[in-house]
Sequence to fold (181 residues):
Amino acid sequence: MLKKLLLVVVLFTVSSCVSIRVFSDYDTVTDFSTYKSFGFYKEGVDAVAISDFDKRRILKAIDTVLVNKGMEKSSTPDLLINFKVRAEEKVTVDTPGWGWGWGWGWGSPFFAPFWGMNNNSLLTTRKEGQLQIDFIARDSDQLIWQGIGFGSISERTKDRDARIALFVSEILKAYPPVEKK
Fold:
């Protein structure tokens, strides 16, 4: 029973680290089928305050996903791609409560299970990152599509290439937007 409980806790912890929440918005009057090529908005990308390694990882991931969607990278693109990142510390406090536990209970000389108050608070912190990808129509210089992904990544993430590629691919699943009928 204890092994099963431990397995559930480990699976929950791992799955919570993998989750990426994604949102997108777009200009509803835009005909996205007319956009066949893309390039990166150099001034915007240069202004992003992250390591050059992570910038290259993000650029490579965007490039890979868009080429796989049939778009072509061009020096005179239809779309300019920009991205922004932000990270914030999330703090969770689990407060004390009543429950079963092991210990020395109410005058008992034995180490045994008892019902009582848990006086220990559990404080956990984690970084949640946000990656925003903007698609700008080059001819009108207007934002036509935006995707934002929220999830966790840290400097200690072992396979940053794969994690960033997953982040980007999850965001770009919503491009091009599907017309609602």
